[in-house]
Amino acid sequence: MKQKIIKKRVVGIDISLEATSYAIVDVKGEVLVMESFATSDYPDINLFVSVLSERLMDMVERNGGYESIRSVGVSALSANFMTGSIENSPNLPWKGVIPLSALLRDRTGYAVAVANNADVRALGEHTYGLARGMRDFVVLTMGSGIGSCLFSNGMIHKGNDGFAGEIGHTCVEPGGRQCGCGNKGCLEAYVAKKGIVATANELMAETTTPSLMRGIENLKALQIAEFCNQGDELAIEVYRRTGEMLGFGLANYASLVDPEAFIFTGGLTKAGKWLLDPAKEAFDKLVFHNTYGKTQFLISEEYKVSNDVLGASALAWEVREYSLFK
Amino acid sequence: MKQKIIKKRVVGIDISLEATSYAIVDVKGEVLVMESFATSDYPDINLFVSVLSERLMDMVERNGGYESIRSVGVSALSANFMTGSIENSPNLPWKGVIPLSALLRDRTGYAVAVANNADVRALGEHTYGLARGMRDFVVLTMGSGIGSCLFSNGMIHKGNDGFAGEIGHTCVEPGGRQCGCGNKGCLEAYVAKKGIVATANELMAETTTPSLMRGIENLKALQIAEFCNQGDELAIEVYRRTGEMLGFGLANYASLVDPEAFIFTGGLTKAGKWLLDPAKEAFDKLVFHNTYGKTQFLISEEYKVSNDVLGASALAWEVREYSLFK
């Protein structure tokens, strides 16, 4: 009888705007080897998939061989976990619906799971990070947009169509600021990077308070946080208002799903206490009393270049092993 | 070897303000026999549990005997699924924390699961009702309060502490109407029965429009719905404003959890289209576009006296069989 080989490694792939990274990761979450290339070098999806598959399989050959890998997990913008496809990404170079899971499976012979960055970060935090041991929690992605992934009973809650978690498009100000999605008053219109800059511009127009923000062309959200560190009062007020909106959105989220923690990931987490302290204050005022004082606010420690590759490797363990070549 | 008996019946118990009902239910959800008594007759919890257990065991003896019953499910106000206790109910006659599951188990020898009415209705709808086959959906309880239960991946989402689903205490109007929970602008302050009457009083004060509502002492929410049926414009406007608030709360809920359906249960569902048509209209305007047009609004067909007993029987199947007397 042929003994079944226990495969102790997986591949994690992160496809982001800037770079596509791929790594071999072991059961403990150690990244054994990682390589990457510029995503924008391959505007044709078929060429992209060919190049990625070739480079990946070459890396695998040099590091343990085909049989050492169990499966592949992919983090990609606009990915739908349920279909394994990238769907109508407004940012990636490929248009329409890209059946990425099938394309990569056919070229590599491995089972491939695909999910968006919020899902993958939640899986990463659950497998290797701050959410280890938690069953019900929320991971937020904070940057150009605001997204989230809810874990329920130890599993990703995808909802009926794979679109759960759109906290960025919950309304925090009825009839408020115009959002890119078409609605008004969405959380994202206030708390994502552009929204923070819009609040700064509003505040500068409202007052004559001197500020380091004044006169700066192309002001950035993290630059404003830097001014907070320098004691700039108006900059601190920008983040106070932003945090208040975030706290409002999170209070409604917590009253609905009672999470053990909100785990914050993404570029905006660099604003740290300037954003989260006022958010926590507003949250504590608004959340339903049974949940008051229980929900932790945590900034991901893992947020660095390899994070989404790690999360993607956690996703890889979730799929059943498969091979075209068996 | 002793053959294990397959037990094809469970007991469902519903403890509400008015009555405590208990029934034997088969695998298909047929109520074989049901009895009840006035909950308020037993303000002492130990006496209540003794009387309930004795009457129940007597009913069981007369209908198939001890061994025919697998387990017991209980629907109770303010019940915590995770602890099996009734916790600090503001309405039931017993104060503090009542370990109902343990009390009933010790007296009957059956495994006993306890949950609140939103959870039990969701289980009932999933097992025997409109949510049959659904994995991700929300059941709402609409009456003196507004509650909900989310199903995620085919299971109840309880959250970290068992307090998920508090849609009644999500904020729909920042700084708005005072809610009994201490916060302002909660959905419940507008959409529960008292809130609807408050809106009616506001509207009557705002305008001089003639209305059947005027001059009625102790106006009731369902009475206002009756006036809608008679074409009363101001009454229709009361429900239009109420529905708008409900639609707002549901849109945020759906953007977060992407449910296949909202299933409405409870006394207020008798207001029917007067409440749900404007709710759906507001919902469609606000929900995130990926979820637009997908979420069904359904009124439970099962809402009748036996419903919570049926739901409680569905809960009974969820617990592992147990007996003190084996």
User: What's the level 1 CATH class of the largest domain in chain A?
Assistant: Alpha Beta
> What is the CATH-assigned architecture of the largest domain in chain A?
2-Layer Sandwich
Q: Let me know the CATH homologous superfamily of the largest domain in chain A.
A: ATPase, nucleotide binding domain
How many separate domains of chain A?
2
Q: Major beta sheet of chain A, specifics?
A: 5 strands, mixed
Unreliably modeled segments of chain A: none
Here the CATH topology of the largest domain in chain A equals Nucleotidyltransferase, domain 5
Which class of secondary structure composition applies to the elements of chain A?
alpha/beta
Number of strands of chain A: 13
Write down the oligomeric state.
Answer: homodimer
Which percent range describes the beta-strand content of chain A? 15-25%
Shape of chain A: globular
The total of helices of chain A stands at: 9
Q: H/E element string of chain A? A: EEEHEEEEHEHEEEHHHHEHEH
Radius of gyration of chain A: 21 Å
Model description:
- The structure is a homodimer of 326-residue chains.
- With 326 residues, chain A is of the alpha/beta class.
- Chain A folds into two domains: 9-115 and 306-316, ATPase, nucleotide binding domain (Nucleotidyltransferase, domain 5); 130-299, ATPase, nucleotide binding domain (Nucleotidyltransferase, domain 5, 2-Layer Sandwich), CATH 3.30.420.40.
- The first copy, chain A, is 35% helix and 21% strand.
- In chain A, strands 3-2-1-4-8 form a five-stranded mixed β-sheet. Chain A has a five-stranded mixed β-sheet with strand order 11-10-9-12-13, with helices on one face. The first copy, chain A, has a three-stranded antiparallel β-sheet with strand order 5-6-7.
- The first copy, chain A, is globular.
- The relative contact order of chain A is 0.15.
- Chains A and B meet through strand 10 and helix 7 of A and strand 10 and helix 7 of B.
